[in-house]
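Minutes, project check-in
Item: structure for the 322-residue chain
Input as provided by the requester:
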Amino acid sequence: MKPKRGVSRTMEETAQVSAPVLAAYSYCEAVTGQQARNFAYGIRLLPTDKRHAMSALYAFSRRVDDIGDGVLAPDVKQVRLEDTRALLGRVRADAVDEDDTDPVAVALADAARRFPLPLGGLDELIDGVLMDVRGETYETWDDLKVYCRCVAGAIGRLSLGVFGPQTGARGAERAPEYADTLGLALQLTNILRDVREDADNGRTYLPADDLAKFGCSVGFHSSTPPEGSDFAGLIHFEVRRARALFAEGYRLLPLLDRRSGACVAAMAGIYRRLLDRIERDPEAVLRGRVSLPGREKAYVAVRGLSGLDARNVSRQAARRRV
């Protein structure tokens, strides 16, 4: 019996990967599934080689984030982050062997051989986490954008290295810009969702001038808004900003092949729906983490796989050109 085309392709891709590298990718996929359900939901729509590469990128990024979010002293965190940067240097120099004891390094090195990954983006991620370690705050949106570009925009550009714009796609030269902007949209949504958790950890990401404008400069340390503040006004203001970023970043979708576009649409779609929930009930972010049920994530994935979001973006672009 002739195998189905999809099964044949998967077996063919797996056969090209050595056993040690395949084990390293399996480790990275396990980390992704355990630590980033929204991300894992999107990348399951990719073919095996791209899913492996995205898992490797996530596992390395997770390691960097875990150092920044851990309980170590700031000076120890800085040393650990620079050690991680040195490991990235080994990956960049193609100096990681298949039998290396670090599965994340093995997987990332293999992904970097297979795809044109702009590994400098992971240096930017480390720079962004160092900003966290130093306790930096942000006076304006322009200041916060620098941070968001390091920790999220760079990941968007790295992901584009895996997805790759379709050959001959109109406007493909702007794909890195759109990927970067979509990363900003996702990160701003994250900031809104985690505003209470970040406050409990002594961190404030929203721009100081926005907080002052809406009477929220004292911070968010309880399940109710600061007394006398216009907390809902602040959240709605930031939601509008995030929606504008999504609208621009979604212009990436028609530039990607069907499955890569479905992956991006699924991940971004989950965050857009989180944004909808936050907009409907701004104080929910003070009571706990806002999330989506599995059935809603599945709907978003099916919508992405259908290409509906990409077609909508294409139609809007066509109307703008008329």
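Outcome recorded: The chain has a mean pLDDT of 88.
No further action items on this chain.
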